[in-house]
């Protein structure tokens, strides 16, 4: 290396450090994405490599079958639950950022659900929601609220609320930790200046805290939206999408592995990606345009 000039050495080092990440990205991200787009234009069954190019027929089938996009109504439960989760996450983050005795212990308790594996979480909530021996109905009966006891997973009007609550419970701790990091980055001088000016606690939160964490809130809403559109593990492990709990991703997986139609499933995956990108653009252009 010593026979090369400093500029040449610099370029060689940069090239060496960038080569492996770029190759990995091309191998595991861009090539699969291009392949997915190609498969969506074929009738590939997923077995072997026999496939025929059928153009946009898969996309026509998606947009002409109401039951495909009908699954998105179940995704809406997770989105609404995610919005509620963001509010509670911010609430607990504000409390646990203040001078509260034992706040680190409370942080650990609220973060633990995120650490649990999704399968373990679903098995645990099966015991919570069980009609006969579930802890929820047992508790309601013990406090004299027998009329509130429900078939939480058997009632079509309640099951998606029950599953969305599991998602809220599991991921609230992660959002809370992100909010805590954002709140701790706000200078104390701003709050001291607000106190000197006679600002109340709500005014400090509205005019100091919220504007300071605006970008984090934007990130949380994007994650909430994408997480709702990609909801899969909790409804699939709990009920395999039965009892009208099937989400868009569950229908995509069933189309690929249950009905052996990888071409149509690839098209559904591409449509899901387009929906995510569209909602992100709408959010940035209209909801947060004032922050630019």
Task: Describe the structure concisely.
This protein is mostly helical and 292 residues long.
Describe this structure in words.
The radius of gyration is 24 Å and the shape is globular. The protein folds into three domains: 1-30; 40-69 and 251-292, no CATH class; 72-246, Orthogonal Bundle (MetI-like fold), CATH 1.10.3720.10. By secondary structure, the protein is mostly helical. The model has no long low-confidence stretch (mean pLDDT 87). It has 14 helices and no strands. The chain has helices at residues 6-39, 57-64, 66-70, 72-97, 103-115, 118-129, 135-142, 159-184, 188-196, 201-212, 214-229, 233-239, 248-258, 262-287.
The CATH H-level homologous superfamily of the largest domain: MetI-like
Strand content: under 5%
Largest beta-sheet details:
none
Head-to-tail CA distance between termini: 46 Å
Find the CATH topology of the largest domain.
MetI-like fold
Keywords: Cell membrane, Membrane, Sugar transport, Transmembrane, Transmembrane helix, Transport
Subcellular location: Cell membrane
Pfam families: BPD_transp_1
Organism: Paenibacillus algorifonticola
List the helices and strands and how they pair.
Blueprint: H1 6-39, H2 57-64, H3 66-70, H4 72-97, H5 103-115, H6 118-129, H7 135-142, H8 159-184, H9 188-196, H10 201-212, H11 214-229, H12 233-239, H13 248-258, H14 262-287
Helix pairs in contact: 2-14, 4-8, 4-11, 5-8, 6-12, 11-14, 13-14
Features:
3 domains, sugar transport, transmembrane helix, MetI-like, MetI-like fold, single chain, cell membrane, 292 residues, mainly alpha, MetI-like_sf
């Amino acid at each position: 290396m010593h026979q090369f000039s400093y500029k040449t050495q610099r370029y060689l080092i940069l090239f060496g450090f960038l080569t492996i990440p770029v190759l990995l990205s091309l191998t595991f991200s861009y090539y699969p994405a291009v392949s997915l787009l190609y498969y969506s234009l074929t009738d590939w069954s997923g077995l072997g490599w026999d496939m025929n190019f059928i153009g946009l027929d898969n996309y026509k089938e998606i947009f002409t079958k109401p039951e495909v996009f009908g699954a998105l109504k179940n995704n809406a439960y997770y989105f609404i639950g995610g919005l509620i989760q963001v509010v509670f996450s911010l609430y607990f983050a504000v409390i646990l950022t203040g001078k509260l005795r034992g706040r680190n212990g409370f942080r650990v308790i609220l973060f633990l659900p995120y650490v649990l594996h999704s399968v373990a979480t679903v098995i645990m909530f099966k015991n919570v929601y069980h009609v006969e021996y579930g802890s929820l109905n047992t508790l309601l009966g013990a406090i004299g609220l027998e009329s509130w006891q429900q078939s939480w997973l058997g009632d079509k009007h309640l099951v998606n609320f029950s599953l969305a609550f599991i998602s809220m419970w599991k991921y609230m701790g992660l959002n809370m930790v992100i909010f805590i990091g954002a709140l701790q980055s706000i200078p104390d001088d701003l709050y001291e200046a607000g106190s000197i000016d006679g600002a109340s606690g709500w005014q400090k939160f509205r005019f100091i805290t919220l504007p300071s964490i605006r970008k984090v809130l934007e990130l949380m809403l994007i994650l909430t939206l994408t997480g709702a559109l990609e909801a899969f593990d909790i409804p699939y492990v709990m009920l395999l999408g039965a009892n009208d709990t099937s989400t868009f991703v569950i229908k995509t997986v069933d189309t690929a592995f249950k009905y052996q139609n990888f071409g149509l499933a690839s098209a559904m995956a591409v449509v899901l990606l387009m929906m995510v990108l569209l909602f992100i653009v709408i959010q940035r252009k209209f909801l947060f345009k004032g922050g630019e």
